[in-house]
Amino acid sequence: MKLDIKEIPFSRYGSYFCISEEKDSNDVYIRDIHGGDDAPSRLFKIALVENGIEQDFEVHASEVSVQFHIKGRSEAAVEMIIPKENELHIEVKNIELKLTADKGKYDSIMELARGMFEYHIYPKELKLMLLNLSGTLNVQAPWNIIGNDYIDICLSKGHFVFESYQTVYKEKKYSSFHEGKDQVTRQYKAWFQSMKPLQVDDQYLSSIERAAYITWSSVVHPHGLLREPAMYMSKLWMYNIWSWDNCFNALNLGKEHPELAYKQLKIFMDTQDESGAYPDFVNDKFISYNCTKPPIFALVYDQLMQKNDYFKETSRIREVFESTKKVMSYYDNYRTFKERLPHYKHGNDSGWDNASLFHEGMPVEAPDLASFLIRSYDILASFAEILGEKEEAVSFKERADSMFKLLMERLYDADGFYGRVGKDGKIITNRSSLILRLPLLIAYRLDKTIAEELVNDLEQNFETRFGLATENPSSPYYKENGYWLGPIWAPVTYLFIHALKANGYTEAADRLRKKFLDLTLEGGMAENFDPFTGEGLVDTSFTWTSSVFLQLLHEHYGDD
Fold first, then answer.
1. Full-prediction pTM beyond 0.90?
2. What is the residue range of 173's domain?
3. What are the Cα distances from residue 273, in Å, to 287, 330, 446?
4. For the segment 211-240, what is each residue's pLDDT rounded down to a tens digit?
5. Where is each Mannosylglycerate hydrolase MGH1-like glycoside hydrolase domain found (predicted)?
6. From the CB of residue 487, how many other CB atoms can be counted at a distance below 10 Å?
7. How many domains does the chain divide into?
8. What is the dihedral of CA 423, 418, 354, 302, to 10 degrees?
9. What CA–CA distances, in Å, run from 481 to 305, 349, 354, 404, 470?
């Protein structure tokens, strides 16, 4: 694959290193994503120098290496690979590579031995060891009391390594550049084959290449607060793990990589607050409980059990069961006013940050939240049966029945579902957001006419050339590139396709699936998409988009 590092950063499975080109300046940086997306990520700006003058260069990247060479002169080149998680290897031929540190106040570099420099990066609590294995290395870094004024590193004619670590460096023997490249090539090929359907049309090959690479290269190794390998949402600029994004990534991994899939769920079960809330997001340095995302763990785990017997193991079902019970208690105890339905305290809680449903204020009783909880109670009842918890199975079924009755009393009328806002539960008159159609997830509980009205509503008011717009395009709230005010999103698409298929609306499900598969040919694996042009919007290297695409592709070809 020809990798555009403006759109998709160059990296590898397990590594915090990545290399990307900034869209505005066209500057290329070696980056490190420790600390999440609130931490600085730039390490070094890349320049190619000849006779003391910086030259224009071209970038040629693939899944296993990234090359920079003088325009029209492929022999004057620099190549970089990441053969191991903490090692960035650089080979320089017939040119000089200049690396200018994007440093902070106390950041400092020092020579420890000939051809061996240690760089301390204070904001990231990170150290880099730079080693000259076979070339010429020159470091310009004038000292000024508490740090270097600047750091310029010049490399030429040989093989160099940056190794990252937190405390101490341990000497080792490094593989040759050629051996390292072969090693990462083998590893990526194995991943790619595990992601690709057995039978697939060539038309989707470019999307498969993007999706497979993004999912592989967005994983980081355990470090700090992360006790398991974690698939970040992106290494471009949204490098955290959010607690519903991770569920869609786990779903895609479930069949071929069940252990890795389960570890994505474990990240949040292991960081669950004593109140029962999952964090909004996690990275290696920080856990945020400001918001809590939609309760879809049970729904996803129920699907994972159908993919692989690994998830039917009793101890795992028990762990998910007990954790999900705490989530449900959280909504009962801390998100529900007396004789009301559970509520959101911000649009971010729903995952639909700025949807029109939330424009009047907070808190909001929303039918999608009630539907997720009802579905979760129904699934918990089935888990309780498997675990021999007969009384709990009955109790969960009763809770689901009670919440469903309240949903239909408080948030449904002849014109469909709606929301309520504020401490007094005022009815929200605007009904133009797609989020209000998510009760389709519990269509098995709805009167048949209500379910069919929801399906007709989707087709008539939200379905576009490329799929389901998140805001009715005729609404005054609809906004081009408006985040949740119109663009198509992968997870929402998946939820609706799943609901349609599960409740007998297979024709509509198949049509939306095909539209989304085709959408990726226009917009790649972006965070979201224009519903009329298919243009990829915002972050262009997103894992849950990639995971949903791969999942839907396997379903399309009957592999799932």
1. yes
2. 17-182
3. 10, 10, 34
4. 999 999 999 999 999 999 999 999 998 999
5. 239-545
6. 25
7. 2
8. 100
9. 37, 21, 12, 35, 11
